[in-house]
């Protein structure tokens, strides 16, 4: 089942997709696309009196493709892309297109330069791009570009894109592609891949569940070493105006970085309590004052920048599932 709600949807000429601003998109565990909207701003989502959210469900009979969807992105024309078992779904607000690929399972998707849609899959990494007059998306694997010792990339790690390239975390470490070339690879077998985050244009990588590293092209700088906290399920970061960034670590809690001793300092409060008790899958900023956390047990948690004021959006608030795999805002 895929679920969505699009208020005031207006038809636009192709190739632009048919969406309106101020939206949150999310994918629950059983392959739903849900759209949440709250006017006049996302900050209203913190108000428990804002009312129940309106959701439209798209069932498997309405869209082509496997129902299990794990990630979501959007291109500059507004098209939504959702990854499933055998490729990606492209949605413009009215029409669905299944772009097939020889993939066993796809975990992450990001829109990048040159109109390419990058993905990480089980034992495969690559991208979709338009080919031919009908703009059909074709899949291009990057495995042939990897040296033999890196061919076994594992289950599929994290994926992030910055001005310095396209970064993948794999079973053999961190790989970077730029200008269709393999520029950098940490090939030590002990450097297992983990979460990758982009913060203010800079890549941060959690290596081996114990080191948080700042990545700059071919160099790695240690930011924090903590084998207990960084071993949590998924590490995500969000910036905050005039404050230190917040690091949200599944099964561990919410933290700031103490720059003096390079340690993680806990930010106690309601958000920390919920995050400490379960897996988190994604974090997305909503506006200058609030952000959302996708969880595997508690639905979506909307929080202010302090982590002290939160609102839980779950089945009781109209979500189809409490397990939310990914978020996307525009």
Structure, described:
Helices cover 2% and strands 48% of the residues. By secondary structure, it is an all-beta fold. The strands form 8 sheets. It has a 4-stranded antiparallel sheet, with no helix packed on it. Mean pLDDT is 80; it is low at 1-22 and 38-43.
Task: Note the main attributes of this structure.
single chain, 330 residues, mainly beta, four-stranded antiparallel beta sheet, 1 helix, 29 strands, 2% helix, disordered N terminus
Count of alpha and pi helical runs: 1
Poorly predicted runs are: 1-22, 38-43
**What would you report as the Rg, rounded to the nearest angstrom?**
19 Å
> What is the helix content?
under 10%
User: Alpha-carbon distance between the termini?
Assistant: 23 Å
Instruction: Give the CA-based shape.
Output: globular
Order of SSEs, N→C?
EEEEEEEEEEEEEEEEEEEEEEEEHEEEEE
Structural class: mainly beta
Describe the main β-sheet briefly.
4 strands, antiparallel
Q: What is the overall pLDDT average?
A: 80
Report the strand count: 29
Strand content: over 45%
Strand order of the largest sheet: 5-6-7-8
Put the structure in a nutshell.
The two termini are 23 Å apart.
